[in-house]
Amino acid sequence: MPAINRREKIMRIAQIAPLYEATPPLKYGGTERVVSYLTEELVRQGHEVTLFASGDSITNAELISCSPKSLRTDNSCIDPLARHYVMLQKVAEQSERFDMLHFHIDYLHFPFSVNNNYKHLSTLHGRLDLPDLKPLYEQFSYVPVVSISDHQRKPLPFAGWVETVYHGIPADLHTIGNGGGNYLAFLGRISPEKRVDRAIEIAKRVGMKIKIAAKIDKVDEEYFNKNIFPLLDHPLVEFIGEITEIEKRNFLRDAVALLFPIDWPEPFGMVMIESMAAGTPVIAFNKGSVPEIIDNGLTGFIVENVDDAVKAVNALPTLSRAECRKVFEHRFSAERMANQYLSIYCRLIENKNPINRTNQQQILNSLKSNINVCG
């Protein structure tokens, strides 16, 4: 059978996003933001894309609303799973419209998808080192899934891994800055595993201002009030709170470096590539995906502790902001991400047999080996 050229074949693709945030989110949000970047790039390339998401989402694709608005902003939502099951039914009812259904809701759709004939793929966006996940992925080991880093796979080596696809963002979303704000940046979420306390300690020890742009989830309010709020009363510390995508641009451009002092197996870490896109190097603790994303000594420094991070701040003048941007353009653009997914879609479509327990290993091996089937 002749190879499919992804540049000539128009695909009908469904992207199924979580409903917790709009796609893209107005402020903080990882998964829905990635789904948005992927969706818009596929549309830009001429594919027919349908986005199943919350009604307040904004897209150039066809939008099918599965909740009036994002669940985080909907005070009437008590059971978010109920809203997602409504979405899954809508997807199943329209599945024949699509060549490929791409899910971003982790394992929630597995019982639906394995009992239908549609072609499907799941990108797993969260941490996978939770004990409850092992029997689930053993049961559904034949479902084709994509990891967002190689490290993310480690707890579940038996899952139906097809490929690792690193996240990407639009090349024009950020422009290179000069770090003229003379501050260190912390961007993301306040939680025990993100360790903003480490970031504050690093800034104090080097005598440099730190700006903290971070969301506080309700579940982390007690942690913030008890452990972080007392640390904010210092002349070098400025707490900004949650910021928009537009505000993020100057926030990263003007920073000398981004601090990423995590204390958990981060599956990816979008803020690292956003920072690189602005030419801003990253000082990150050696956890999770960090060694896959940061080129030590080129786009930042990978450190083991606060002492190492302090040394890294002092070594920042040895790095080139232009190189940070260059690496981003080569490795982490939305176009590269979309093209990689298109290749996987083609391989799945070329396989004419349904993926089930009987033929799972044969088909998954074929999907992994026929990497050039789309040209």
From TrEMBL:
GO terms for molecular function: glycosyltransferase activity. It comes from the Bacteria. The keyword Metal-binding does not apply. InterPro entries: Glyco_trans_1 (IPR001296), Glyco_trans_4-like_N (IPR028098). Coiled coil: none annotated. Residues 28-131 form the Glycosyltransferase subfamily 4-like N-terminal domain. This is Glycosyltransferase. Residues 179-316 form the Glycosyl transferase family domain. The keyword Zinc does not apply. Keywords: Transferase.
